[in-house]
Design brief:
Radius of gyration: 11 Å
Order of helices and strands: HHHHH
Strand content: under 5%
CATH class: Mainly Alpha
CATH topology: 434 Repressor (Amino-terminal Domain)
Structural class: mainly alpha
Largest sheet: none
Number of domains: 1
Number of strands: 0
Length: 72
């Protein structure tokens, strides 16, 4: 899987997890101390997030880090 494809798939997975909670991008942003634009870029595969950012998002979504990055 290419880097670009990985970022896009990760973004789609985050969208799915966020929507399962019934959250907007703004809700997720507030829960992990990010701005909505940062979440939007992440969900659209425009950024390569740090491990710490992924951990913050996993914690906000109440999932484990392995579950967050499980794209299989």
């Amino acid at each position: 899987m290419t880097r670009e494809k990985l970022k896009i798939e990760l973004g789609k997975h985050i969208v799915m997890l966020r929507q399962q909670k019934g959250w907007s991008q703004s809700d997720l942003a507030r829960a992990c101390n990010k701005d909505r634009q940062a979440i939007e870029k992440l969900e659209n595969g425009k950024v390569n997030p740090t491990l710490y950012t992924l951990l913050e998002i996993a914690n906000a979504l109440d999932v484990s880090l392995p579950e967050l990055v499980d794209l299989g």
